[in-house]
Amino acid sequence: MASELQTKVSITNKFTNHFKGDYNTSTHCSRLNLELSPLGTASTPRFFFRRERRTDQHRWKSVSSRPGAALVLAAGQDSRLARAVLRVGPLATRAGGGLGRDELRACGSAKTLVAFFLCIQYFQHKDAYQAILDGVKGGAKEKRLAAQFIPKFFKHFPELADSAINAQLDLCEDEDVSIRRQAIKELPQFATGDNLPRVADILTQLLQSDDSAEFNLVNNALLSIFKMDAKGTLGGLFSQILQGEDIVRERAIKFLSTKLKTLPEEVMTKEVEDFILTESKKVLEDVTGEEFVLFMKILSGLKSLQTVSGRQQLVELVAEQADLEQTFNPSDPDCVDRLLQCTRQAVPLFSKNVHSTKFVTYFCEHVLPNLSSLSTPVEGLDIQLEVLKLLAEMSSFCGDMEKLESNLKKLFDKLLEYMPLPPEEAENGENAGNEEPKLQFSYVECLLYSFHQLGRKLPDFLTAKLNAEKLKDFKIRLQYFARGLQVYIRQLRLALQGKTGEALKTEENKIKVVALKITNNINVLIKDLFHIPPSYKSTVTLSWKPVQKADASQKRASEDTTSSSPPKKASAGPKRDARQIYNPPSGKYSSNLGSFSYEQRGGFRGGRGRGWGGRGNRSRGRIY
User: Fold this and answer.
1) d(CA 624, CA 605)
2) How distant is the alpha carbon of residue 287 from its chain centre?
3) What value does the mean pLDDT of the chain take?
């Protein structure tokens, strides 16, 4: 029911006589609710009226014959009438404020008369509302009342909108925490029409509050206006993300990354999601590494980007951020870190329909030749292994490559570096060298898997593209590596034999489980390459990837199931490991563990090139 509209107006006895028994009986008029109100004092008696229903007509009955009267009118029973009468312009009164018969006749219909009363009410109450606005300058009690009444009557005084919002903002910054919380809680009531983006902008700035209760109130207020107008709310949020202080920007981005997914579909429409994508592209022109990861989380969660074309858009967006057209500088930690961060965000998007060709080509042409000289700002990170793992994951989804043979040659040469020749033997049958070569199984798994995946596209590479001497050398290396593999596999199986459940969860056994996965994978791939001609039909699950369930046919296939042959069963063990490296030197187990995570490892530093680093100074202070 519409809010009750009441007014008081002093009238003469002529008004009573003029309308007694002669009131308009139209449908709208019959819906009016005219009530008594005992106003006035003994010295200033008032004249009252009430509506009575008698058979088929409405009559006005005089309750008092004294001069002067007060009429209380309520249009709350008919919201359509209330809207209609508000459209009628104000009517002038005589200087004395009284109404004569001619003036009353000029009022015309009941709706016009109601409008007249409302105009009188408006101008009388405007001063009262202004007094409420001035209450923000008073004491604590006045401020508490103002915090409640300013938003309550805000919609009735549109020309005071700016003053009302500014007054409420003053209360949002009050020293009294209870006043601040009350003022913040009521802010959504100001989110009407053109004011909504401004309110969203204000609430976004208030996200910088360190008070947990206030912070939660701001979050709830933003969510409430999101449901009123999602696009308008996003306009306020992105305005602060682009121009606000760093703390506001950070919390606004986190709000989007955590809250958007909780909103119902009727709020997150296609138009709203398109707006998010458009505004996000503007933000991504100047972001830190952590911000980039959060925005990719936001965008990848949008329903409209779950399609093949949607994922392709995201891949192109990531490729643009990675700046794959720029010369790669392996000695620049920020350049390396940016490439890895972007590639991590792209990997989950690749599929048989969304190809990784651009990234794989870049890795083969620019990164692999400089693998040993890569630098990283992240302490303790095996940057070479991380690059090789990313390449292995992407290789399954590589499409047609322009320089396939050239890039496959680069990959093959890098593989040879990690597959040593057997040590030379002295005349007495012992090793001539002081040390046996180290077999770096984790590196070889990645390189061999990548070569196996790309080799499918050029199956005669080993037979037709290599000369006989190089092929012979490669098979000697494979054979030596395979002999070492068999020894380690037997040792690992023996060490894990009979162990189940909790026993496999110890740190030592976790290492052995991962090591067994790695060695088994390499063994399968080497067997394929020993075929004449070499075969590329076997499939393996990379040691750090979760095992794919057979009943997950509706999901996108993982990168290791591109072959038409059925997948082999993986060894028992935990579904996901911390991407451990097993690197046993010369027949001994090694506890040297490397870890890999898709999470952000430190921020992107340096200049503003492509925005990966400092974002420059932003405006400070309230910009409501």
Assistant:
1) 31
2) 14
3) 74
